[in-house]
Amino acid sequence: MTGLFTAVFSGFLLAAVAPWVHRLAPRRSGWILASLPLALTAYFVLHIGPIAEGAAFRAGFSWIPFLGIRLSFLLDGLSLLFCLLITGIGTLVVVYSGGYLKGHPELGRFHAYLLMFMASMLGVVLSDNAIALFVFWELTSLSSFFLIGFDHERAAARAAALQALLVTGLGGLALMAGLLLMGRIYGSLELSRMMAEGSGPLQSNPLFLPILILVLAGAFTKSAQFPFHIWLPNAMEAPAPVSAYLHAATMVKAGVYLVARVNPLFAGSPFWFWMLVGAGGVTMLLGACLAMVETDLKRILAYSTVSALGTLTLLLGLDTIRATEAALAFLLVHGLYKGALFLTAGAVDHGAGSRNVAELGGLRRAMPITALAAGLAALSMAGIPPFFGFVGKETIYQAVLGSSAARGLVTSAALLANLLFVAIGLIVGIRPFIGALKETPQHPHEAPVDLWIGPLLLGAIGLAAGLVPGAVGHDFVLRAASVVMDRTTETHFSLWHGWNTAVALSLVTFAAGLTVFAARHPLSRGFARVSGALAPVGPARGYFRILDGTIGMARGVTRVFQSGYLNRYLLFVLFTTVGLAGYTLFFRARLSWPEEVLHVRFYEAGLVAVMLVAALTAIRSRARLVTVIALGVVGYGVSLLFLFFGAPDLAMTQILVETLTVILFVLIFYRLPQVIVLSRSAGMRLLDASIALACGGLMTALVLTAVRVQWRPSIASYFSEHSLSLAKGHNIVNVILVDFRGFDTLGEITVLSAAGIGVYGLLKLRSGRGEAP
Amino acid sequence: MGIDSLPAALSVIRPELILAVTALVCLALDLLYKPADKMPCWAVAFFGSLAALASTIASWGTEQEAFSQLVRMDNLSNFFAVIFLMVGLITLCLSDSYVQREGLPAGEYYTLLLISMTGMVFMAQANDLMTVYLGIEIMSIPVYVLVAMMSKSPKSPEAGLKYLLLGGFASAILLFGIALLYGAVGTTQLADILRQAPGALKASDPLFLAGVGLLLVGMGFKVSLVPFHMWTPDAYEGAPTSVTAFMSVAVKAAGFSVLIRVIVLSLSPMAVDWSQIFWWLAVLSMVLGNVVALVQENIKRMLAYSSIAHAGYVLVALTTGTETGIHAALIYLFIYALMNLGAFGVVIAVSREGDQGVEIRDYTGMARKRPLYALAMAVFMFSLAGVPPTAGFIGKFYAFSAAVKAGYVWLAVIGVLMSAVSAYFYLRVLVVMYMKEPEAGAEYSAGPWGAPIGAGVSVSLWVCALSILFLGIWPGWLSHFAQQALQGLTSLL
Amino acid sequence: MEILLAFLIGGLYAAGFYLVLGRSIGKLIVGLVLLGQAANLLIFTAGGLTRAHPPIVPEGALEAQPPFADPIPQALILTAIVIGFGVLAFALVLVDRTFQRVGTYDTDDMTSTDA
User: Which of A297, A377, B128, B352 is the most buried (most CB within 10 A)?
Assistant: First the structure.
C-alpha cells in the first residue's frame, strides 16, 4: 500500500520543482501543476466505493525506531472526506492561482508553497501516528505563514503572517504536549492503537483534564475558535486563492478534524461537551455578528468562516449521531460554497478593482459567469432548496433539536447564526451583481477562464449534491460519522423529510434572513458600536498586549541581568557559588570546631599577620607600586607556608612565579595612570566590603570543616609505594608530575604556550596595524 | 594502574597528538612564510584536523585507558571528538577568507584553534579530575586569546578581557571543587569516585557535596548556563565571528562532555541531588536565554542568548540521568553544532569588513539579493526554533520525550513553552529577510553566486543546511551512533 | 594552626572578593591573584597539614615514612600555580591592550559590548 505515501509525498516533490516548472511554462504553469491534485482526486475517488463498504487502508514504516515512531498512514471514512476536499478544491485553486497571479514575478514560489501546503494537509488527515500528525500540522502552519505573507510589501501582511503563525504554532506545540502525554498513557503513539484501547485509560488518568486542554488548545487555535479567532480575519491579507483554500475550505478545518478524530477517546466527559459546545456556540454567534460589521468582501467571508467553524465545533460537541452527521455534512457544504465565494470575491476584485460591498453593484452584465458562480454558492450558503446547503441546514436543526443539554439555548443560537448566514450570503454573493451598475475603480470585465472555472464548478457541485443527497450522505457522511462516533450509522439523507420542526425553523430562518438583509445598514452600525465598545478588552487587543508585555519584560530582564558591568557579573557568580557551598555546609552538614592538630609557632603567627596586613594594603593603597609590593608579600608568604608544611617544591615554584608576576605587574602598571583606584561612594564600598567579608567567612568555615577530615589511606599511598619501584624517583611530587602524570605536565606546557602565543599575538598586533583607534 | 607501555598510551591520545603536531607545524610555517601568504597554514590546519578526525573514526569501537588511567578512549569520547573535529573543520572553512578580510594574524589564529581542539579532545577523554581541569584550561586559554584577536573592533579586547576574567574565576572554582572532592574521597579518579560516592553520601560529607556543587559551577560556566552565562553575549559579540561560531558549539559540547562524564555518569549515586540543581539551571537557562533574545538587535548577541537557551534544552535531557536522557543530549549536541555553525556561517557571509552588517536590520530583503543565503538561513532558523521537519525538531523531540519518559513533565512543558517563545525571534529574522524589500543603498558584499567571502563559507553552509534537512527526515543513523557511544557506560547508571 | 590558616584563607578571600567587585581593572587583577593564592592555600590546608615531612622517599627506603605530606594536593597546586601564571600573563597584556584601545581602565566604562 505505497499509494498513500505517494499521495502525500508527491506534493512535496512537485513543490520542490514548481518554480522550475513555472519558469519553463510561465503562462500555463497553473494548468500543468494542477494535474497532480487532479490525479490525486481521482485516486481518492477510486477509494469511495470500498470505504463506503467499511474498508480502511493503511501504510507505514519505521521512522525513528529508538522512540518507536512510525510514519503510518490510515485512510478511512473521515480522512477520505477531507482528502477529497483537499485535492478537489486544491485542483481548482491551483488553476485559479495561475490566472489570478498571472505575471507576478514570484508565482513559481507561490505554487511551491501551495503544493507544499496541500501535501502537508493530506499528511495531517492521513497520519495515524500522533507525532507525524504534529509534524504535518506544523508544516501547514508554516506554509500558511508564507502564503499570508506573500504580498509582503505591506506591513499589515507581515504582521498578519506572524500573528497567524504564532497563534497556530503555539497551539501546535500544546497539541504535541497533549499527544505525547496521551502516548505515555497508552504506551503507543499510534492513534488507531489508542482507539483500540478505548477511552477508559485516558479518562481515568489524573492527567485527563490537562491533556484535554492541551489538545483543544491545538484544535481551537487552528480552527479559529474564540478567543483565538483573531488571526483568521487578519489572514485575509493573503491572495484570494489562499483565503479560499487554506482559510475557508481546508486548513482551518484541521482543528475540527482533530476533534473528530480523537472524539472516541474524549467523548462522554462533561468537560469535553462544555468546552466544545461553549467555545463553538460563542464563536458561531460572534463570527456571524462581526461579519455584519465588515464591508470588505473577504473580511465578511472570513468572519462567516469563523462562525461556520464555531458551528462545526458545537455540533461535534453535542456528540449525538445526528449532530456528527450534521457537522460532516455542513463541513462539505461549507467547503464548497465558501471556497467558491472567496474565489469569486477574488475575481470581482480582479475585474472591478474593489472588494468593498458598498462600492459594488450591477456587475451581472459585465461578469455574467462569475455572477452565476457566486449566485449558486450564495444560495447554497443561504440554505435554499434544492441546494446541498438546505440539506446541511436541515440536519443541523435536527441535531440541535436532539441535543441532550441546553436544547433551547443551542437551538436559538443556531437559528440566529443561520439567519445571519442568509443575509451574509445575499450580501456577498447576490448584492454585488444586481441592481444598478456602480462606479468602480476599474472598468469591470469578465475574468478569464482560469478564474471562473473553479467557483463555477464548486457552485454546481453544491447544487448537484443537493439533488442526490442520499448518495452523497451514504458515500461521504455516514462512513466518516461512524469513524467519529466509533459505531456504524445508517441514517438516510434526503431533501424532504415531511413537515416537522426543522422545516418550520428553516422557513423562519429564511424569512428573518431576508429581513436582516433589508435592515443590514442600521444593524451593521449597531453591531459596530457594540464591538467598538468591547474592543479594549477583546482578544485582538489582548494579543498585542501579551506581545508588548513580553517584549517589555525581556527588556527589563536584560537591564537587570545583562548590565554589562563586569563586577556585577562577578557578583552574580559569587552569590550563586557561595550560596551553593553555604547551603551544603549549613543545611547538609553539622558544623563543628576542629581539633588543632598542629600548634601555632610564633613565627607562623607573625607571618599570617604580615600577610593579612599586606592584603589590606593591596586593597587600600592608591599607588601602583605599593599595591604590587603588597601582592608580592602575600605571594612570598604563601610560599613560606608551603615550605613550613612539607612542600618545598611548591614553595620554590611559587617563589619563581611570584617574582615573574611582580615583574609583569610592574611592567604593565607603568603603562597605566599613576593612581589606579577609582572613587566609589561609601555606601557601595560598604556593600562590597560586607559581601566580601561574608564570602571570606564562609570560606573559613569551609576550611574548618575540611580539616576535620583526617588522613586516610588513599591514592597517595599508592604513589608512595610505587614512586621508587616503578619510576625510580625519590620525590613523590616530582614522580607524580613527571612519570605517573607526565601527561599533566605536558598539558601545563601546552597551556603556557597557548598563553604565550596569545601574549605574542597581542603584542604583535599592537606594534602592527592594530594601533589604529 | 601502572606506567603503561608508551606506544599503547600514545595510540589513545593519537588525535590530540596529531592536532598538537599540526599546531606546531602551523606555528613554524607562520614564522617561515611571509605574512602575505597564509594559505599553507590553513591547509596544514585543515588536513591535520582531517587526519585527527580519520584517526578518531578509525578507533570507533575501541576502549582503552592510558597514563595511569588519566585518559580513557571509548565510544563516548570518540563521539564527542567527532563533534569537535567536525566543528573544527567547518570552522576552518568559515575562517579562511574571514581571517584575511579582518586582518587577523593567521598563523596564531590557526595554531590556537588547533590547541583548543586538542584540549577539547582531552576533555572528552578525561578519566580523572586532573585531566578534566587540564583539558578545560588547554581548551579555554586559546579561546580567550582568539576572542581578543579582532584588531578592527574595539569590542574585541574588552570582550576577551571579560571572558578571561570570568573564565579564570570559573576555573579557580572548578579547581576548588576538585580539591574538596579529593579531600572527601581521597581520589581524583572518576571510577574511584563512583565507588566512593555512596559512602560519602551516606555520611552526608559536606566536603563531597560542596565539591560537587563547585564542579557544577565551573562546568556551568563553560556551557554557559544561567546564572553563569554573563560572559556569553559580550564574548560572542566581540569575538571574530568565526571564533564565535567555534565557541558557541565546540566549547559548549566540550563542557557537556565533561558534565556527562563527571556528573551524570560518575556521580550517578547522587542523582537525586544534582538533578534538582539541573532542573533549576535548565529552567533558568531556557527562560532567560529565550526571553532576553527577544529584544536583541545584533544577530551575534541574539545567537548568543539562543545558545544559552539551547544549553538549557540539553540540560533538560540530562536532568533525567537516564540512558535515554544522555542519548538525547548527544543527539541534540550533534544537531545543535550543525545548525548553529550554519547560522554563524551566514552571519560571516553577510557581514562586511570590521564586523559591519551584523545587525538584524542588515538582513532586510536578503531573499531578493542573496536568495540562496536567505534560504540557508531560513533552514537554520527553523531548525533552531525546532520546527519540523528540520533536525532541530528531532533534537528537541528526543530531549523533551526523554524528560517526559522520566517523569519530568513540567520540565518538558516549560521547554516546549520556551521553544514557542524562541520561535518569535528566529522567525523575526525570516520575516526581515523574506518579507521586506531591501532598503535603498543596502550593501551586500558581492562575489560569484553571491559568495562574497570565499567558496569555503558557501560549501560549509550547504553542508550544514543539507545535513540538517537530512537528519530531520532520517534521524535513525545518528540515534544509532549515539546509542553505540553509550554502550557499556550506562551500566553505571 | 589549621584554625589560624582558616582565618588567613578567609581574609585573603575577602580581600580578593572586595577587589574583584571594584571598578579598577588593575585592582581587579590583583584581586584575582589574591583569590588564586587563597585557593592554593585552601587546597593545601584541606589536604592535611604535616610539619616538615616532604613526600620524599628517603635514601635506602622503599617508600616514604608516614606521616608525610599528601602529594596529590601538592601536584594539583603546582599545576594550578603554573596555569594561573599563564592566564595572569595574558590577562595583564590584555588589560594593557584594552587600555590602549578603549582608553579606560574603569570596568564601569567597559560596557560598549552591551545592547
Answer: A377
